[in-house]
Automatic annotation (TrEMBL):
Origin: domain of life: Bacteria
Phylogenetic placement of the source organism: Bacteria, Bacillati, Actinomycetota, Actinomycetes, Mycobacteriales
Family: Belongs to the vitamin uptake transporter (VUT/ECF) (TC 2.A.88) family. Q precursor transporter subfamily.
GO molecular function: transmembrane transporter activity
Principal location class: membrane
Source organism of this protein record: Nocardia colli
Membrane topology of the entry: Multi-pass membrane protein
Pfam family, one: Vut_1
Name listed for the protein in its UniProt record: Probable queuosine precursor transporter
Annotated InterPro entries: YhhQ
Cellular component GO terms, alphabetical: plasma membrane
Segments passing through the bilayer: 36-58, 78-98, 105-127, 147-169, 181-207, 213-236
Compartments reported by the entry: Cell membrane
Chain's role: Involved in the import of queuosine (Q) precursors, required for Q precursor salvage.
Keywords: Cell membrane, Membrane, Transmembrane, Transmembrane helix, Transport
């Protein structure tokens, strides 16, 4: 007896789903969270490298107010970058909430650790006979454990304080008084960051007196806070644009620190 062949059937794997016709890929989450976190992390890495350089302004002048050295101004090479990291942190907290901002902070912390480990490995690798810049290479990226600890501790505490303060103020003000939560969170976060970082890193970048230390803390804190105020119109526009274009932006049912 002739057997009639059955029509071809799509192979069904053990999962019960039809076998796909093309290669499998995961979907990238929509929205602007990912590129903002990438910019946030890149700013942190660059800042921590630049911060290894001690910088002074107005070195031809010497002005003191009691124990406080007003001039010259002592700071580090990342003085113009740290404010940007906090501005991006404000945007993350305002748009995506504390949980998402905290996730970005954890990610940044992990990447900073990875950066330090990779730099250490690169420094210890044997230099080629034709490579004449080993000492300069070590000097530029060979951050000491003291600076690593200062950067990580200051960053983690400062960013957490910044994000938590912003969302707690927003819980009370809702969509009103954006300026209050941007500036208020910056004051709290930047002070925590600056105090911790300077306390640990001061001697590593050459600050060897109390007057220089106080100057370092005050100048760093005031500059970073002032930078937030100066760019407030830009921050307002970025936040307004994201609120308009993020389709999931809406009030949450959970309290601010749980959202």
């Amino acid at each position: 007896m002739m057997r009639v062949s059955e029509p071809n059937k799509t192979e069904v794997p053990e999962s019960g789903r039809p076998a796909p016709d093309h290669a499998a890929f995961a979907q990238v989450a929509r929205g602007y969270y990912t590129p903002i976190v990438a910019l946030f992390t890149a700013t942190l890495i660059i800042s921590n490298i630049c911060a290894t350089k001690g910088v002074q302004f107005f070195t031809d002048h010497s002005v003191h107010l009691g124990p406080l050295e007003v001039l010259p101004i002592s700071t580090d090479g990342a003085w113009f970058l740290f404010p940007l990291a906090y501005i991006i942190g404000d945007v993350l907290s305002e748009i995506y909430g504390f949980k998402s901002a905290r996730r970005a902070i954890y990610f940044g912390f992990a990447v900073l650790l990875l950066t330090v480990v990779c730099f250490k490995i690169a420094i210890e690798l044997p230099a080629a006979t034709f490579y004449e810049n080993q000492d300069a290479f070590r000097t530029v990226i060979g951050t000491t454990p003291q600076l690593v600890a200062a950067g990580l501790a200051g960053y983690f505490v400062g960013e957490m304080l910044n994000s938590a303060t912003l969302v707690l103020i927003k819980e009370r003000t809702k969509e009103k008084h954006l300026w209050a939560r941007l500036i208020g969170s910056t004051v709290v976060g930047e002070f925590g960051d600056t105090l911790i970082f300077c306390s640990i890193a001061a001697t590593a970048i050459g600050i060897d007196s109390w007057s220089q230390f106080v100057n370092y803390v005050i100048v760093g804190f005031l500059w970073k806070t002032l930078a937030e105020v100066i760019v407030l119109p830009i921050t307002y526009r970025v936040i307004a644009w994201l609120k308009k274009h993020e389709p999931t932006y809406a009030p949450r049912e959970a309290p601010a620190l749980q959202s």
